[in-house]
Amino acid sequence: MVPESDDRGCPKCDHTETEVGTISTTGGGLSKMFDIQTNSFKVVSCTNCGYSELYRDTTSGSSDIVDVFLG
Domain limits of the chain? Predict the structure, then answer.
């Protein structure tokens, strides 16, 4: 059994600084035809290596998302 680590950081490089951004995308059907952006995501990116993860935007604070990203 592998011992659990208490280290927090980027899953790729273990760096602990992040940037949080937002992107919006269209869905399918009429929303795509009229370019209506129906999906919103938070993007958490490592400032060291650029590794990024998308999280569906639930309009809660971004600090919870950063905690998930860093472990």
Answer: 18-61+63-67
